[in-house]
């Protein structure tokens, strides 16, 4: 790309930023994504951003690499200095200082690529089903009566756990199921132990633990059967697998994760001294609250004693009796006044009733006379009485013109005092 631009304008002077930008474009477009194998060196993890910086090297060469936000995956894979890995990503150029680097998107140990691919598929499937959701996590009991421990009796995890537990609370009851914690089939053993504790109801909280080891040693704690058994467990489950940098599916699906077996012992139960201090503090708060309550009740009783009702109760009853007598007298006066006003109103209505009825009757008589006169004026019989008649044809239609009849037609005539049938002999048209 640079040569093409120089051929178009060979005299143009380019900046360093333009050069680095063109070089990055050429690298990313011409090489693309690829798998790269090598050994990790100079591993640096940024805790704030989660980015991982390291060098991938072989016997003859090395290249700088960056895994953006890859902290959790690197911890889950237990990768460290000298680990042999296979990285998938693209060739890139950091334009600020012109340094060549490899941008990683997928990272897996050599020889475990297919296993880790299946592990990521299982993790994504369980996450989509909601097994990792915080909302389904159960709280730990304050003071469990019995702790169920699932681990190997031959490992160091049980010694670390019991040592911390004996120091913090030596009298607590513990049930232990000896189970293999590594090797093929260990996941099914662990799941069966968790299921037994859950169905028996013999403990209030459960701890699944083992000490540190390689990723192969911890692989059975990524089994699907163990994850689903823990997810359906009705009692809280604490996962304490490996060291702080180790991270398995068992840790993600459990209600709580402890970085080490010792931390699990500290998490599951408070120290005896700490509990005694808590009880003493609660006792002091309870005594202070009761004293405050009693003081408030005493002040209230003192105010009640100074009240006039308790000093001279007769005064209150006398005032109430006087108010009652006054109310009874006012009620009697109001009833008498109401009765008198009602009687006067009734007399007034009785006087106004005949005149009102007479006036209403006269108004309706006048209205009837006007309607009768109107009907008489519209009565057709009165018109016929002046010598007119109405002629109807055979279809009982009124004859309005001589053109509507012919000689020989029989007509029906209506007069003021009767009806007649007539026959047309001749018709003449008047000017």
Walk me through what this model shows:
With 431 residues, the protein is α/β, with parallel strands linked by helices. It has four domains: 110 residues, Nucleic acid-binding proteins (OB fold (Dihydrolipoamide Acetyltransferase, E2P)), CATH 2.40.50.140; 129 residues, Lumazine/riboflavin synthase (Rossmann fold), CATH 3.40.50.960; 32 residues; 40 residues, no CATH class. The protein is 47% helix and 20% strand. The longest helix has 66 residues.
List the helices and strands and how they pair.
Blueprint: H1 2-8, H2 16-31, E1 33-45, E2 52-57, E3 62-67, H3 71-76, E4 84-94, E5 99-109, H4 113-128, E6 146-151, H5 156-168, E7 173-178, H6 186-200, E8 205-210, H7 224-231, E9 237-241, H8 249-253, E10 256-257, H9 261-268, H10 272-305, H11 308-311, H12 313-378, H13 380-384, E11 390-392, E12 410-414, E13 419-423
Parallel strand pairs: 3-5, 6-7, 6-8, 8-9, 9-10
Antiparallel strand pairs: 1-2, 1-4, 2-3, 4-5, 11-12, 12-13
Helix pairs in contact: 5-9, 6-7
Tell the overall outline. flat
Number of domains: 4
CATH class of the largest domain: Alpha Beta
- How do the helices and strands follow one another from N- to C-terminus? HHEEEHEEHEHEHEHEHEHHHHHEEE
Provide a concise account of the structure shown.
With 431 residues, this protein is of the alpha/beta class. The chain is 47% helix and 20% strand.
Which properties best describe this structure?
431 residues; five-stranded mixed β-barrel; alpha/beta; OB fold (Dihydrolipoamide Acetyltransferase, E2P); five-stranded parallel sheet; single chain
């Amino acid at each position: 790309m640079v040569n093409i631009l120089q051929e178009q304008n060979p005299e143009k002077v380019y900046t360093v930023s333009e050069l680095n930008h063109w070089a990055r474009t050429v690298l990313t477009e011409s090489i693309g994504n690829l798998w790269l194998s090598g050994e990790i060196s100079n591993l640096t993890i940024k805790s704030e951003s989660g980015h991982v910086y390291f060098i991938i090297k072989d016997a003859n060469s090395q290249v700088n690499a960056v895994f953006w936000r890859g902290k959790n995956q690197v911890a889950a894979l237990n990768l460290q200095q000298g680990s042999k890995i296979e990285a998938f990503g693209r060739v890139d150029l950091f334009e600020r200082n012109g340094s060549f680097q490899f941008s990683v998107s997928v990272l897996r140990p050599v020889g475990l690529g297919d296993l880790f691919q299946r592990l990521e598929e299982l993790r994504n499937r369980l996450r989509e089903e909601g097994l990792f959701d915080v909302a389904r996590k159960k709280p730990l009991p304050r003071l469990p009566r019995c702790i169920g421990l699932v681990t190997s009796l031959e490992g160091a995890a049980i010694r670390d756990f019991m040592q911390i537990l004996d120091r913090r609370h030596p009298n607590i009851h513990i049930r232990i199921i000896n189970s293999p914690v590594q090797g093929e089939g260990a996941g099914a053993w662990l799941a069966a132990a968790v299921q037994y504790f859950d169905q028996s109801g013999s403990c209030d909280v459960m701890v699944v633990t083992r000490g540190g080891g390689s990723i192969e040693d911890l692989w059975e704690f990524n089994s699907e059967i163990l994850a689903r058994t823990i997810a359906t467990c009705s009692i809280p489950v604490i996962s304490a697998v490996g060291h702080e940098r180790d991270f398995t599916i068992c840790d993600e699906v459990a209600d709580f994760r402890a970085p080490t077996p010792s931390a699990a012992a500290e998490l599951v139960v408070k120290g005896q001294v700490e509990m005694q201090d808590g009880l003493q503090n609660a006792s002091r708060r309870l005594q202070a609250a009761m004293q405050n309550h009693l003081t408030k009740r005493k002040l209230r009783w003192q105010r009640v004693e100074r009240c006039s009702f308790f000093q001279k109760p007769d005064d209150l009853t006398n005032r109430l009796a006087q108010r009652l007598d006054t109310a009874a007298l006012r009620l009697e006066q109001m009833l008498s006044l109401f009765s008198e006003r009602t009687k006067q109103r009734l007399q007034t209505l009785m006087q106004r009733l005949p005149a009102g009825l007479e006036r209403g009757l006269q108004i309706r008589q006048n209205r009837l006379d006007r309607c009768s006169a109107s009907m008489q004026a519209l009565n057709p019989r009165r018109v016929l009485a002046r010598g007119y008649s109405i002629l109807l044809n055979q279809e009982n239609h009124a004859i309005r013109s001589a053109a509507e009849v012919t000689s020989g037609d029989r007509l029906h005539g209506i007069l003021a005092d009767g009806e007649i049938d007539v026959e047309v002999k001749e018709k003449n048209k008047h000017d």
